[in-house]
């Protein structure tokens, strides 16, 4: 008899950054595999068009929170627990980017990108990681890194630094949370047509990226769905933690 390895029925997934292109597409897959899905976005008006189809479903609800503010995350956790009674899986998909030349980067820009891409991961892991540990049912935390996390990409200094921090936090917390049955893993996407990187993809940049990507194309956001469902599912990946899973068309395997 085949085992339903990827069945998430009875589990509640919290999607941080549900208003992003990649976050909303991954939320689709988690819902399709049976999960109750709490969508968390900073800007509700921007998020609603992306997740409108999901909000028609009984097992989905949209919540508002600034994920760089711990009090907001604590409040939204309370709201999610009141709604579903649990928070088993947390997907952190919030992110921002900038192509400002190094010597032109201001402290304000540095702080903003680091807050959204790194600080919010730390805070979300504090809030939802603690909740999972206290509940005693194990859990799964999935962060979204980037191929720029190492070696760093040119032109995106702060973004690369922030994603390197995500890798480090992911592996540190995998060790910290493992005794409690909470797994922590990262997905390392290659180049996907997300809103945050469209502005910096000049034709010259695209040509360079394609020459370094063996599959010679951008990824389709739906190609992240398998990885996120696998990492969320206990039966399929209950012994996987501290891993950085590449979905990058071979970008990380390239040299010269």
TrEMBL record:
GO terms for biological process: bile acid metabolic process. Gene3D superfamilies: NAD(P)-binding Rossmann-like Domain. This is D-mannonate oxidoreductase. Keywords: Oxidoreductase. GO terms for molecular function: oxidoreductase activity, acting on the CH-OH group of donors, NAD or NADP as acceptor. It comes from the Bacteria. The keyword Oxidoreductase applies. Belongs to the short-chain dehydrogenases/reductases (SDR) family.
């Amino acid at each position: 008899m085949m085992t339903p390895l990827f069945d998430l029925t009875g589990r509640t997934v919290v999607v941080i950054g549900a208003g992003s292109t990649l976050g909303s597409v991954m939320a689709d897959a988690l819902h399709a595999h049976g999960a109750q899905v709490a969508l968390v976005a900073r800007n509700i008006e921007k998020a609603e068009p992306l997740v409108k189809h999901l909000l028609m479903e009984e097992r989905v609800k949209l919540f508002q929170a600034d994920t760089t503010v711990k009090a907001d995350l604590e409040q939204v956790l309370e709201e999610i627990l009141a709604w579903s009674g649990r928070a088993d899986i947390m997907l952190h998909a919030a992110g921002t980017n900038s192509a400002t030349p190094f010597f032109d980067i201001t402290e304000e820009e540095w702080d903003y990108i680091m807050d959204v891409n790194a600080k919010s991961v730390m805070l979300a892991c504090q809030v939802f990681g603690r909740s999972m540990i206290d509940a005693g049912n194990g859990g799964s935390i999935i962060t979204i890194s980037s191929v720029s996390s190492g070696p760093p990409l040119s032109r995106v200094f702060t973004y690369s630094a922030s994603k390197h921090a995500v890798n480090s936090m992911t592996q540190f917390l995998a060790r910290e949370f493992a005794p409690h049955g909470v797994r922590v893993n990262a997905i390392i996407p290659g180049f996907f047509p997300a809103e945050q990187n469209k502005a910096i993809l000049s034709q010259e940049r695209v040509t360079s990226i394609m020459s370094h990507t063996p599959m010679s194309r951008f990824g389709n956001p739906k190609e992240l769905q398998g990885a996120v469902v696998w990492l969320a599912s206990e039966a399929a990946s209950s012994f996987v933690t501290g891993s950085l899973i590449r979905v990058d068309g071979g970008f990380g395997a390239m040299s010269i």
